[in-house]
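DM from R.C. (forwarded with permission)

"hey, sorry to bug you on a friday — could you get me a structure for this? deadline for the figure draft is monday and I only need the backbone to look sensible"
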Amino acid sequence: MKSPRIWQGIAWALASTPGGTTRLRLAARMAWALLRYPGALRRWMAVVWELQARGLVQDLPAEFLRAVRPFVHRGQTVQDRVVQLTDHADWLEGALQPVALRQLAAGQPVMLADLSAPRGYEFMRLQLQRAPAHSPEGELLLTLTLQRAAEVHVTQPVDVAAVAFSCFRVQGKRCLAIGGVRGQRHPVLRLSPNEITQALSGWKAPVLMLRVMQELAQFWELHLIGLDPAHHTLYAWHYAASPRHREMARRIAGSHDMLWKHFDAQRGPGGWMVLPPHSDDRLAATALSPEKRARQIQRADYWIRTGNLLRVEFRNVLLRPDPRAELARQTESQTIQGMFSGYDESRHGTPSSVLDSLPASQF
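My reply, with the result:
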């Protein structure tokens, strides 16, 4: 059975689920891409067709349309996106255990770690799931999910924080690329910022989530980068006339700049910020006040226990890179350049400094 023709993308765009842009605009983007980048779209069609045949893709039209949907980095062309998406698909197959990979392909969340839930909560989990096809920030979501205990309050699980990311090469180095860090989006099911901070023993959810991303990057032997807010798609010229878009861009830039500054991220190539592999060198109780120093030590102790748990649980769900398997992949588009070491299971934490660089209400 032959793969569909790339020109069917226009019909798929007109019938797609709305999100990120209108169906008409998506169809126009597809028509322009078909004229400008037909070769790249043929390669991407071959990739998603193969992935669907192997059961790793459930909705072929939605996956094909990822290549032309708006991306959070405004400097990427359709050809760039095809390279990135192909890179991500190749990496993902070797990054998860087979059971977890099938679970993710079926649209189900994969639990990375079941964190110790405080009193009044049924569970608190770190989960990995596929981002919606119209998500502009990345192909995967790392989420922190909490649910109150039934005797306290009848509720459903709430995603209190999420990091959207992908894996692709930047200047020949394979990276986990963070496209966005966000908080609660459900209009009704929400927890207060103070409630979340208390559940995390004083940690701000965005800061904790990036610490987890650092652990993931080290386990997978990848560099960790985040989007430079100045290159966000909302700064494109066609959004400049909208006061709503300008205000949204300002808020996103403000919150992410504070987060990158907290982690001492350095400006890197291609509109990305380079994050350090770990931040344990900053874990020190330095406050003069005994009360503040006690809170710092409490936060450090929580991260030490959480970090140790993650390093154990990762082995049950994730796979470390295998250079031989990487070279054998059929859809690999570039030569392997360098494996990045640095994951050290023997690292031990020290008492923490104050980590409230970012108000949770901004996410």
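R.C.: lifesaver. The beta strands are 110-115, 121-130, 140-148, 158-170, 173-182, 223-227, 266-267, 272-275.
me: no worries. Confidence is low (pLDDT under 50) at residues 330-363.
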